[in-house]
Structure formats: C-alpha cells, structure tokens
Amino acid sequence: MKSKLLMIQGTSSGAGKSLMVTALCRILSNKGYKVAPFKSQNMSSYIFKIDNSDKIIAQAQAIQALGARTQPDVRMNPILLKPIGNYESEVYLFGEFYSKMTAREYYANFVLEKGFKMALNAFKSLKKENDIILLEGAGSPAEINIMKQDIANMILAKKVKTPVILVADIERGGCFASILGTLLLLKPKYRHLIKGILINKFRGDKQILIPAIRRIESETKKPILGIVPKINHHVPEEDTLDGQKKGNIANRNKNSEAISIEIDKVSKVIESTINIEYILRDILK
Q: pTM for this one?
C-alpha cells in the first residue's frame, strides 16, 4: 500500500506544530495505522539519546515517536542543529556529530548541496516502512529571507508532494493576519499545497470567531479544519524525556509511560475539535 503523507506547518514558531504532530501520531495509531513522524531539520538544545547508541535526535521527534507508538529513530530527524552561541551550531547528521557551522555557512555551503539529499534519503526509507508519515515544518514557511534554502517547509513539501495543514496560534493575537500574511508571501506553487487551517490555543466562546472564520475561508479558499482550545498538559516541551536522572533506563521508561498518558489526553481533546474525518478522506494522500 502506498504511504500517505501530511505535513503540519505553522504561521510562526510556537504555533503548536510539534504537539499537533504528536497528537495526530497517536490519533492515527489508534485507528490502526503504522505512523512515523519526520522533521528534516530541527534546531533544538533539547535532545534525546537513542537507546544503546551515542546517536541523538531532537526531543520533539522522540516524543512524536512515543505518540506513534514506535521507537525513536535517527531517520525521524536526520539533521539536528544544536545552538552553541555566536550564531554557530553543532550539526548532527543521522544522530552523529558532523561539524560546527555558522548560519551563513550552513545555508550557503551545506543545506542544499548535502543536507537536503540526506533528509530525502531518510524520508524515503521511513516511507517504505509506514502507512502514514507526519511531517513537521519549522518556524514559518513564509520566512522570505531563507525561503530558497528552507528544506524544512515548502521545498520539502513540494518535493515529496505532501498536502499541508497550516496551524495558527490565536493566543498571541494577530492570528488571522498571520494566516493571510503567510499565504500572501508564499509563491503560488507552494500556496496550493495548503489544504486547510487549524486555529490553535483558543480560549473562550467559539461562536465569536464565526465572522472571522467566514472571512478567512472566503479570502484564502482554504477550510478551517478546527478550533483547538488551549490545552493544559504535561507533554514535555523543554524538559527531557529522561527525567532528572539521565541514562537511568528504569526512570526513563516510567517517565515515558506518564508522557504517553498525557499524549492520550491531549489527543482526545484535539480529535474532538478538528475535522479528522475530512483530513483522512480528503487531505491524506
């Protein structure tokens, strides 16, 4: 059976992409699919050490793997950038240290020449083993200063032909302007990949949003697929999966069980507030 693909992008950093992918991994796993998360390139100081190895990936992808009920795998985050200060990062490829680079060096000499090919190889390998791949974008796809080198968002989406759902954070304000601005700044060849929009972190009466939703759907010709409430949860965002005692496998497993329970809670809320049937029927390809 041909693998199905879906990418979650955001109008900004912190829009809720990582948690949305984690929840969708669990929702689709509950429906019997074999699911894997994938983020081609992640910049993070919060890392996860793969069991029985010295290889590392971003913590977010390890948590998403937990959501998918599968083992963390270096292919889920083939490029990890670990910031070390002074506009410089340690670059890890498939979990192993590769080099230190400045942002300028990374974008000018590495990302398209070598990085993108390695990310695609990891993606293709995962795709062969899973029913669904849930891809996570990075930051915003409309960062026009790096758009030509942004292998975490639309360059990747177009290459692998995945539909995209755009997540907007309404808690911060400016949600609807962010949606319109993101779509405006995208090139038409990328804009058509966005198949729907999720409004995230809402507090209050959803009826108040109806006029704005109608306007956004009219302006963008994209459906609003759900209004997700602000969820108080304990799925780690900055703390490690390992807990306080790094390397303690017993403690790590216990902590993973607690996180898995939290993922279940979050997933139930999200599934009840998004149009999952439409996503399965009309978007997942």
A: 0.93
